[in-house]
Amino acid sequence: MILLRRELSVLFLSPIAYVTLFFFLILNGLSFWFAIVSLNHAPAENTVGQVFFNGTLFWMAYLLVFPLITMRLFAEEFKLGTIETLMTAPVREIEVVLSKFFAAFLFYLCLWIPSLLYFLVFSWLGNRAAIGSAGQLWAPYVLLFVTGTFNVALGCLASAVTSNQIVAATISFVLTTGFFFLTLAHYLASRAAPLWREIAESVSQVDHMESFSSGIVDSRALVFYPSMALLFIFITFHFFQWRRWKA
Amino acid sequence: MIKVEQLTKKYPSTTAIEDLNFEVAKGEVVGLLGPNGAGKTTTMRILAGFIPATSGSAFVAGYDIFRESLKARMHLGYLPESVPMYGEMRVREYLRYRGSLKGLSGKKLRQRIETVQELCSIKEVGKRPISTLSKGYKQRVGLAEAMIHQPPLLILDEPTLGLDPNQIRQVRELIRSLGEKHTILLSTHILSEAEMTCSRVIIVNKGHIQASDTPANLIGQIRTSGNVCLEARTGNDNPIEWLTRIHGIKEVSARVEDGWQLCSIRVEASSDPREEIFALATERRWILRELTRERATLEDAFVEITHD
Q: Are the Cβ atoms of A89 and B102 closer than 8 angstroms?
């Protein structure tokens, strides 16, 4: 608990957090604005919410945010050497790993809070809802919640393998975007093997968002991402232990 | 308080320490001395629970540092060599964080923060971010942090490294006063410091213990002790010629400065020819300005022991 509070205060007190928040809001705001504009010009069956959650800018903001919030977590402790004071205090390694993961995850969740305002303002000014039903609003957020656990865990791992924050950010970016685009590859290769296509479709964040933003909750995603997150937290824990012991 | 048995730490390329055995009793202030790379930091890191040993066992306050690591860590305060701290935190904030990590809370925590700030005289910087502090202050913040939970044992790795002479004196005073209540294991390069603060010194070299004794006994053991220094105006006499006639003097070297003969006299072990030298000086009507027996220091002992 004390560790978690410390990690959270570092995240929220660092300038990089606000830079992240700033660009995240700009990208998301633009994305929302484009959604409205595009629907103004060409009436379609989609709701503003659906266009927003499936926009390119939205995904860009989403993918950029993980390296930024996770790169510091472990890399900085190794760089400063504070790992030595931290691990000679009576704390368990798993406590350290979990507190870092949850701090980054909570920060990630906070990033999404302002976007709820968009929908509020839209319905207030436009006298109509930006989404078809309540489910179309909360389902995408549920998806962002579960995919968030997965991507934050990837970021944790990236930060635990190096002492350099920039390297950590790069690794984390490669891992998260790598996974993101790999599962989109079947759109490009039209003659992809059916098995590959099926696997890719069932773990693709874009495909999931398409169904979630139309209000269809796919339980496969709810199981897949958190369990992958657990796996990567587990790997992070072992990496962390191994690095400390080899020090 | 500390019990180390057959402790060995091997790295892929080197063996840092091998079959180390020593004990530190409650209330002792023990200095770990040795040249760079002797295994001091490795030993301390193992004892603080930061890295595991390759083989052997270590007990801190009765707890096995590997099997009951958390309990052992509760009973020790550790100051790493580079004093790593979070630069963006303020001193009080850092102490509060570390104190609560070590299980303090509420009124007790506040009291301890006040006490350690006073002990280490860092009260006036309590509100400053750690990154803006001088090395001396940082070192004392590190010390304050190490003892915030009143551990019976303090492990201090080079506590005076990088400090100026005034700061060294302050930290040394602090360690000496802490030694009244805590058991302390410290490592240092500065031998005069070990001589002044430690009740016992363990000299390690190349991963092995070379000597373990009180500073006074270590100094007594070494051969180089007992050189005599003489400064006199000897007129037309050649002092070397006269002095070598005295029994027990092995070798004399002399140089002249402003008409004074500055003689360095090597004597045989366990003989003290100062009386004879004085008698010779009065007989030859030399004017004496200095006649002293050089006191061997721990430094001499250290050099001799680690060179063998």
A: yes
Q: Is residue B305 part of a domain?
A: no
pLDDT in tens, B110-141: 999 999 998 888 889 989 999 999 888 898 89
The CA angle B101-B106-B109, to the nearest 5 degrees, is 55
Determine whether the interchain pair A82/B86 forms a contact, defined as Cβ–Cβ distance below 8 Å. yes
What DSSP character marks residue B11?
A: -
User: Which tens digits make up the pLDDT trace of B189-244?
Assistant: 777 778 888 889 898 888 888 888 888 787 777 655 567 888 998 888 888 888 88
| Chain A contacts to B (CB-CB under 8 A) | 2-3, 6, 10, 13-14, 80-85, 87-92, 244-245, 247
Domain boundary among B195, B221, B247: B221
Pairwise CB contact (< 8 Å): A81 & B102: no
Query: Please, is A67 exposed, middle or buried when counting C-beta atoms within 10 Å of its C-beta (0-12, 13-18, 19+)?
Result: buried
Rounded CA gap, B187 and B42, in Å? 11
Which value does ipTM take for this structure?
A: 0.83
Residue of chain B nearest A96, judged by CA positions: B101
Report how many domains make up chain B. 2
* Beta strands at B228-233 and B260-267: parallel, antiparallel or unpaired: antiparallel
Boundaries of domain holding B48: 2-221
Is residue B80 within 8 angstroms of chain A, CB to CB?
A: yes
What pTM was estimated for this model as a whole? 0.84
Supply the CATH number for residue B15's domain: 3.40.50.300
CB < 8 Å from A in window 128-167 of B: 145
Smallest Cα–Cα separation from B146: which of B85, B194, B206, B197? B85
